[in-house]
Design a protein that fits this description.
single chain, 3 helices, 41% helix, 23% strand, globular
Length: 105
């Protein structure tokens, strides 16, 4: 099952104010039940220049795509990576799977 991207600022603001939060060493997930699955990524300028921010987004997007089938139900989800020296697809994927099990998504 595919997902759509969260794009509207109003959708992000709604989730940041009313969504539930799950934490891992590399990511914070903010989610709320919805009619269709949508995912957005919020990477601030404190992560570095645009090249690094875009690489982080690509890694998180791919990690989410690989664990998407493990999520039962439909949610709007915003993933916020934590500032680190190194970012890896394997860590993002492992922590996403851990959060899905922990939050029973």
């Amino acid at each position: 099952m595919n997902y759509l991207r969260l794009k509207k600022q109003s959708d992000f603001n709604k989730l940041f104010s009313k969504g539930r939060r799950a934490f891992s060493p590399t990511l914070t997930a903010i989610y709320a039940p919805a009619k269709e699955m949508k995912m957005g990524i919020s990477v601030g300028k404190r992560h570095g220049k645009s090249v690094k921010r875009n690489r982080i987004k690509r890694l998180v997007r791919e990690a989410f795509r690989s664990v998407r089938e493990e999520i039962s139900g439909t949610y709007h989800i915003v993933l916020v990576p934590k500032v680190r020296e190194e970012y890896s697809y394997a860590e993002f994927r492992k922590h996403l799977q851990w959060m899905i099990r922990k939050e029973k998504l």
